[in-house]
Amino acid sequence: MTDTASPHTASPTAASPAAAEDKDAPSLLVQEGDIAADYLERLLDIVDYDGDIDLDVENGRAMVAIVGSDLQPLIGPAGATLDALQELTRLAVQQQTGVRSRLMLDVSGHRRARRNELTALAKQTAEEVLSSGEPVRLTPMNPFERKVVHDAISATEGVVSESEGEEPNRRVVVLPAT
Is 112 helix (H, G, I), strand (E, B) or coil? Predict the structure, then answer.
């Protein structure tokens, strides 16, 4: 569905009306997506990259994706450039709305693929902890990656997870449930 206020693609859930005072209101999330898309389109023009911007609202969060080929430089090593670009985009949105944005940015499906990898790692680690009864410490991860692992572990009976350490060496520890 095309958002009539913007040339960007939005999902049907993104267009439902809600009270503007509610910071998680779909109308604010659509506005966040539109601001982010405009910011990212300007950036793509500056760096002379071709990409389409797709917008969605999922789990109370604006989801913005840049889709195209040859966008690896926007992802960077281990997603570091993508993380920085997401933070800059969030700041651009906050500057215009006055509200701290929780938008999620993806480039060429990188986060989606990483989410699948991390979910599989979490399931494998949970099985290992259930089998051995011993905690397992995973390698350091960024906040997005840790949340994916915590969510996958929380859906598995018999194990729990917690984070330990300080950024950038913060990691998930999977433990037997007590």
Answer: helix
